[in-house]
Amino acid sequence: MTVPQLSKTYDPKAVEPRWSRFWIEKRYFHPSIDHPGEPYCIVIPPPNVTGSLHVGHALNHSLQDILIRWRRMQGRNTLWLPGTDHAGIATQNVVEKRLLAEGLSREALGRDRFIERVWQWKAESGNTIINQQRQLGESCDWDRLRFTMDEGLSRAVIEVFVRLYEDGLIYRGERLINWCPRCLTALSDIEVEHEEVKGTLYHIKYPLADDPATTLVVATTRPETMLGDTAVAVHPDDPRYRHLIGKKIRLPLTEREIPIVGDSILVDLEFGTGAVKITPAHDFNDYEAGERHGLPRLALFDHRALLDHALMMKAGVDSDVASALATLPVQKARTTIVQLLTDHGLLVKRDDHRMAVGKCYRCKTVVEPYLSPQWFVKIQPLADPAIKVVEEGRIRIIPEGWVNNYLGWMRNIKDWCISRQIWWGHQIPAWYCRSCNDRYLIAQEATTTILQGARPIVAKQAPSQCPTCGDSRFMRDPDVLDTWFSSALWPFSTLGWPDQTPELKRYYPTSTLVTGLDILFFWVARMIMMGLKFMGDVPFRDVYIHALVRDAEGQKMSKSKGNVIDPLHVMDKYGADALRFTLASMASPGRDVKLAEERIEGYRNFANKIWNAARFALMYLNGPRTATPLSERPFPDRWIVSRLNRTIQTVSSELEAYRFDRAASVLYQFIWHEYCDWYVELIKPALQDASHPNGPTTRQTLADTLETTMRLLHPFMPFITEEIWQTIPHEGDSIAVQSYPTADVTKIAPGVEQEFALLEQTIGLVRTGRVLLNHPPGQPVSFFVAHVDQDLHHRLRGLHHHLAHMSRGSVAVIPSNEWPAGKLLRLVAEGLSVGLVVSNDVDLGKALDRLTDQIAEADKEVSRLDAKLANPDFSSKAPPEVITEHRERLRTLTRDRALLVSSHEQLQAMLGS
RNA sequence: GGGCGGAUAGCUCAGUUGGAAGAGCGCUGCCCUUACAAGGCAGAGGUCACAGGUUCGAUCCCUGUUCCGCCUACCA
To answer: What is the ipTM of this complex?
Structure first.
């Protein structure tokens, strides 16, 4: 047998691509439906098809892969279903930018050719992120890759739309919606990000119609919308104004007179002037107030948020004012209006005022409330059951702190605007008969506006004949659906719905959803609603919400700040395993992940440590192995097996609890500080001496424990574990499909672990002594060991060889009263004494200082314990075992202290002599 | 405005029935000891944000305060 020669440092780049290809070729991640295991399924939160992997994905995907690999190794029928979404607005924006660079525009191209271009772009860039995912080692079933615009998924979207419409849960109506004047589309409420800004509160005089000398002062942050005011509101209980309710106001700069109404909802007595202008076409609150008072809605802005001349004329704006304002954008219009008001002596004052503006979550343009006909999902009937399943625990949200967040949002949920005025997406399956809707289909320039009141025919396919008039000329609604509408169906559309496929039967409901908080509402809530509505069951049992990844300073990563950590660069530099392990170890619940490159470097070193442990093993495994019964194996073997089983136990229970951080740290601790630091060192004598009687059994334990450890670690670091596993004794073709270790509690030996603790403590004292006496590590040291406890003293005797080897010295385990009288540095801890032989020429200063410090420390602790035990309340009220423990501690401490003092005295005596 | 979370070593964070303060990184000192210098060994470093309360005893439970995040909201 030849020993594979492993290089001295681990080189991930030489290893990772090889296994990535191997796994995919072997199709290990493609489960068969009839796999006997209990299903475990995760659907991936689909990233944007034309995007690339960022560190947020890396975290999200690493955690999912850990769960999936773990469950697969446990023998579950495991499906991790990958895919991407079409990200309507974002993708369309990207393609439009590319067109612009070519001097083209989407309008010039036309809808069909534009969509072709988007598909082309998807074909070019769509594989980028998939390949990056493979680089990260993701064990997805790539055969089942899905895309939200696939034929099958599109069919699901149409099916859902039609059924919701038929159930009265989708309607079309003219509402005030959030409009992005750059993307030129409607947005849903949650696609608007609010940002606090410094604004100005303008106080404007409105003269009364029947008494122009008297004015009512209104306060507003948006004076440019005043031309569309259709009323002024005051509080009905406000003694200043209540007599004015019912009277009329002359709206400045227009020819209109508008009523003064009383409204206790809109008006806050304390704020501003107590009088509020109502502009129903440009403000959400005003819209509702307008509904309450039956006010007309006068829009002033066009779809680009520019003041429109025709609309202003319709609103009775003075024609010279209208001319001055026409085509101005919001900000400029505001300046102009304020100037006009000032000129007319109508501006009373302006106050600084903090306010929130809404911005488009895709392009950060300030959104405008915009009056337009849109499609909505009536959400309440869908939300109610989605609230119930979480309340009843049929869906668990982890960490559970987010439950209230979810419930709060769901209870206040508003109807969902699902139509988008873009081209890339699922076009709404609604047609309008041209003859029946003649009055409602208004053609202007290249586009046709479908007014409110038009009667759509909603169907899975284009109708051939109008059921009302028999005409066969139709116009299809040009709008597409919100991307999240299709994402909401993801857990079942990807499994084949609306067909009743075997996959659907086997894997729905899925097991766990892993996602960031940022899309809890966008996505998770909507999947729950849609899953319940169309599958009659929850889409997943557990929702695990992880934190957002920030930079080392806690700042959100963004390209403009230049603080992004690129996972591809990181993987290239440190390896995918190091990145994965870092992210897992930092995934503490409820905390943001602050990622600094040094952390990744640290775990790269960890990978290297593992690599070298494997090199060590391979170097010495070349010899006979004997599987002796555990009880007959040498002490180090029994100890490491005990520790390994405890580690298996902990890792498994932490994974069950989604504590990736704790699982990772337990693995790190075990591998580095137990396996490498102690076990490997302890067995060197047995391995390095070819004739050592323990050789064969030690080699067996070494091989077994290393192999098991690799399987235990594999979900976290799939590449290096596969590489090592393949070179050490093993059975099977790939570690990825081996069984996950299960803890054998009979192998956990507290007695052996206790004995090890004694060994470790003794070696610790010897090493400390070495440093205190300036003994170089290479120079052998002679020392005595004793323990006041008879049993422990006896056990130390049994550890004699290990003590000598680990401390590089010669040891005598004999009662301390038999130790030579002088020339010893005695160190003490919990009844254990170590005496190092001191040569004459050594500087004892450090040693004396150390002893002095320890005596002082002991004194402090002794008096603390004394005081506590002397307290009658303590002895009468504290539990007996606590009291015993305190007494015991005081006893050892006092004993240790006495020994330290005598050690100190002896050293001083030596100095004196 | 409301809600949630956080404040523990220089940094990032663990720390559940309340009973002697932990890890990783960084730092200091000594070591190229044949698995590993991407390493080994030994150390230093903390009134657990502040003020009260409950308790024999509080990092932990309660109240308040300050500061920092995030989510959410119509104070024009």
So the answer is: 0.94
